[in-house]
Design a protein that fits this description.
There is one protein chain. With about 350 residues, this protein is α/β, with parallel strands linked by helices. The chain has eleven helices and 16 strands. The strands form three sheets. Strands 3, 5, 6, 7, 8, 15 and 16 form a seven-stranded mixed sheet that branches. Strands 11-10-9-12-13-14 form a six-stranded parallel sheet, with helices on both faces. The termini are close together. Helix 3 crosses helix 4. It folds into two domains: about 180 residues, Alpha-Beta Complex (Quinone Oxidoreductase, Chain A, domain 1), CATH 3.90.180; about 140 residues, 3-Layer(aba) Sandwich (Rossmann fold). Belongs to the zinc-containing alcohol dehydrogenase family. Quinone oxidoreductase subfamily. It comes from Tahibacter amnicola.
């Protein structure tokens, strides 16, 4: 089968940073599905895993954690799917990725893809949908059906793939959503998804927040730089508020001070936790992706694909990684077709 992978971790400008491969087709056992991959999307995690380091893989490593495709075959313990089903999923970072024509994935973290979307637009959703859902509803404990309606959420970095999904799910839960962006295109995208206001993160945030009549916010989702915004978050978060992080700090941060005085809770969100540790509740990813598909088909959640590249090959994936590294992407980058 065709695939794209690496042996060395190189700058994306190097032709060998991602290369075209021919690999054997894997065979499903147990609760695994063998999926014929039709489309994939690229996320910051792909870029972070591929980032230059002094390591050489003895066998090619295939990356990729967002896919849509058709079930080709199933393991002998599979109960949720059968060959021919159209599915979407984000996968497991501890296993080979989905940048391949055929991919093995555990049924517990897979769902039937939205009927109203094609493969390319379905592939843009899983990783960001899972991350946003888990951050808001599992980590923060917000009620998805509106019990916490009216509370405020500040999203640091609202225009990327993850921010695009956090905005939509938070609005569905009835939150007041304020996002940050710096370019007119990014700000317009955030507003189109339901952000009540967009703050310019190139300017001090407190005056902009106060202009909205808010001294503090109940929740902060930091989807960008932890260290750069640490003191700002400590200032803007409300007493007994919640801060959510998806990236590790690049340097030391102070956990005490205002955060202690306000009894602020700090939450990590890593959507690979359930599959990585085979947690007893890993089926929740199947359930939440099923609910996301229903919301998309009902027209209450929009797809977030903004760029579709074709075909899937090393050259196109290098281009997608480079765009992600630029930090200027809006929505998701998708690759379709082999």
């Amino acid at each position: 089968m065709r695939a794209v992978g690496l042996n060395r971790y190189l700058p994306i400008t190097e032709p060998d940073s991602l290369v075209d491969l021919e690999l054997p087709v894997p065979q499903p056992t147990g609760t695994d599905l063998l999926v014929r991959v039709q489309a994939i999307s690229v996320n910051p995690v792909d870029v972070k895993v591929r980032a230059p380091k002094a390591l050489v893989e003895p066998a090619p490593r295939v990356l990729g954690w967002d896919a849509a495709g058709v079930v080709e075959a199933v393991g002998d313990s599979v109960t949720l799917f059968r060959p021919g089903d159209a599915v979407y999923y984000a996968g497991d970072i501890t296993r080979p990725g989905c940048n391949a024509q055929f991919h093995l994935v555990d049924q517990h973290i897979v769902a039937a893809m939205p009927r109203s979307l094609d493969f390319a637009h379905a592939a843009a959703l899983p990783l960001t949908a899972i991350t946003a859902w888990e951050l808001l509803f599992d980590r923060f404990g917000i009620d998805p059906d509106g019990f916490h309606s009216g509370r405020s959420l500040l999203i640091l970095g609202g225009a990327g793939g993850l921010g695009s999904m956090v905005i939509q799910l938070a609005r569905l839960a009835g939150l007041r959503v304020i996002a940050t962006a710096s370019r007119p295109e990014s700000a317009d995208w955030c507003r189109s998804l339901g952000a009540e206001a967009v703050l310019d993160h190139g300017m001090p945030l407190r005056p902009q927040l106060e202009s909205l009549g808010l001294a503090h916010v109940d929740y902060i989702a930091n989807l960008v730089d932890v260290v750069a915004y640490w003191e700002v978050m400590a200032d803007l978060i409300a007493p007994q508020g919640c801060i959510g992080l998806v990236s590790e700090p690049s340097g030391p941060v102070r956990l005490g001070g205002p955060l202690k005085e306000k009894s602020v809770s700090l939450h990590w969100e890593f959507m690979f936790t359930r599959p990585m540790f085979s947690t007893a509740d890993r089926l929740e990813q199947h359930r939440l992706l099923t609910r996301i598909a229903a919301l998309v088909d009902a027209g209450t959640v929009r797809g977030t694909a903004r760029q579709v590249l074709t075909p899937i090959n090393a050259r196109q994936l290098r281009e997608a990684h480079a765009r992600i590294e630029s930090g200027r992407t809006v929505g998701k980058i998708v690759l379709e077709g082999w």
